[in-house]
Amino acid sequence: MMLQRRFLLAVAALAVTAAPAWAQIVIGNFEGGTDGWAATSGTGIYPDNSPGYGGFFATNGSYALNLLAPDLASNPPSGTFRWSMQLDNNDIPNLGALFAANPILIADVGFRTDEWADPDANWARWDTASINNNVTGWKQTSDANMDDTSNPGFPGGWDQTNFGATNKRTIRWNFQEVLTPAELAGIAAGTTYFQINLSTNYDANYNTAGGSYWIDNIRLAAVPEPATATLAGLAGLMAIAARRRRG
Fold first, then answer.
1. CATH code for position 213
2. Co-location of 17 and 32 in the same domain
3. Domain co-membership, 234 together with 125
4. Cα–Cα distances in Å, from 11 out to 5, 32, 231, 245?
5. Which of 98, 123, 226, 239 has a CA-to-CA distance to 5 between 20 and 30 Å?
6. What average pLDDT does this structure show over 55-79?
7. Residue 26 forms beta bridges with which residues?
8. How far apart are CA 196 and CA 69, in angstroms?
9. What pLDDT sits at residue 231?
10. pLDDT (tens digit, 9 = 90+) per residue, 121-152?
11. Which H or E element spans position 230?
12. What is the pLDDT of residues 184-228, one digit of tens each?
């Protein structure tokens, strides 16, 4: 009985220890500026810590980045989404190598009803992500490569009816599902340029007056290994327990 109790306690301790062991590298927390992220396609961005706005949506420090979606009346859309912000290796020289070792892009994002002309009927959305570099060229994710803690059926999408007046969630873009091992190895070997791009919904059926998105704690993560480590540890504990029972 004592052995069984110790075994269960060891299992619990191992699980707790292994659970948070994601390797993550922050590439945007916006406490001192935009951290190299630049607006693209005419969209503006700035760090914000206003109460109820950037301060409310901040998850790493006290600032979040406010991404301003332009007025569609003066910026006619050319499609259903637009590339909105970009980071490249001019700001983080080893960005390609960091990405190759950590090919999951993660960000905490937020929405507010009063930033949208018609938030009940139409969607605001963080859309696909992409990389561009001299090894693989342009590669981008699809919905199948995105994971959304609030809206798994339509990742990145928000409206007031389904998600309330304010909403915070975490989104993941898994580039390991987009790139081959050989392509990741090529990026790791060295790139002369490397870009990460994020896009937002840009459909003429919504956002006529423009609006704001918030984003914080952008990071790169390795493929999680805690489950494997935990299983290996459990197997070892079970083997020890079995040997002691036989003894």
1. 2.60.120.260
2. no
3. no
4. 10, 42, 10, 17
5. 226
6. 80
7. 219
8. 19
9. 42
10. 556 788 999 999 999 999 999 999 999 998 88
11. helix 226-246
12. 999 999 899 999 999 987 665 555 556 788 999 999 999 765 544
Domain total of the chain: 2
Residue found under tokens 């989404």:
81
75 shares its domain with 167 = yes
DSSP element (H, E) containing 68: strand 64-69
Name the token pair of 181.
């091992």
Same domain, residue pair 45 and 13: no
Residue 66 and residue 47 in contact, taking contact as beta carbons nearer than 8 Å? yes
Domain shared by 15 and 76, yes or no = no
Kindly state the percentage of the chain with pLDDT values over 70.
69
Residues 9 and 107 in one domain: no
Q: Are strands 104-112 and 211-221 parallel, antiparallel or unpaired?
A: antiparallel
Closest to 59 in 3D by CA, of 108, 105, 22, 20:
108
Distance CA 217, CA 60 (A): 6
Which residues constitute the domain of residue 242? 1-21+227-247
